[in-house]
Design brief:
Blueprint lengths: L1 H62 L3 H15 L3 H16 L3 H7 L8 H41 L1
């Protein structure tokens, strides 16, 4: 009887070993497949969400007058559901958004995006462009100098 129980215990240990071995093999085989599936799913969702944004959401946002108008409307709805000080704060913020947002054409003209560049913009662009070019060139030289210093330090440490 003792022999029977020890034989049964050995068989169950053997089955447990094979069960663990097959489980580990399955995990190793399935891990790359799962990673590939996750990547493919993420790619699909990214493409689909971009497509939905362009086809459905963006036209509706433009219909309502742009992002600021949509944000203002959403804030007004939130303020309507709140009470007290918080409602007042949110509604003031919505008013600021409303005051700062004109039509799309007005904002483009304010930003200088109209057909002809303004005189003051035309006169300041070349000066600021040369300043920024000079500044970029100086920064590039400094980066190159630091890079060379690091390379020399690496060469010294490798030779010792």
């Amino acid at each position: 009887m003792a022999n029977e129980t020890s034989a049964a215990a050995e068989q169950s240990r053997g089955k447990g070993f094979f069960r663990e071995l097959s489980s580990a093999a399955a995990k190793k085989a399935l891990t790359p497949l799962l990673a590939t599936a996750a990547t493919a799913g993420t790619t699909y969702l990214t493409r689909k969400s971009t497509e939905i944004w362009r086809e459905n959401v963006l036209p509706k946002v433009r219909e309502k007058g742009g992002g600021k108008a949509v944000a203002k409307e959403a804030l007004e709805k939130v303020a309507g559901r709140l009470s007290g000080r918080y409602a007042q704060m949110v509604s003031e913020f919505a008013e600021r958004l409303g005051n700062g947002s004109g039509g799309g054409e007005d904002r483009q003209k304010e930003a200088g995006a109209d057909d002809e560049p303004r005189a003051e913009q035309a006169s300041t662009e070349p000066a600021s462009a040369t300043e920024s070019d000079d500044q970029r060139e100086e920064e590039r030289k400094q980066r190159q100098k630091r890079r060379q210093q690091r390379q020399r330090a690496l060469q010294k440490s490798a030779s010792t």
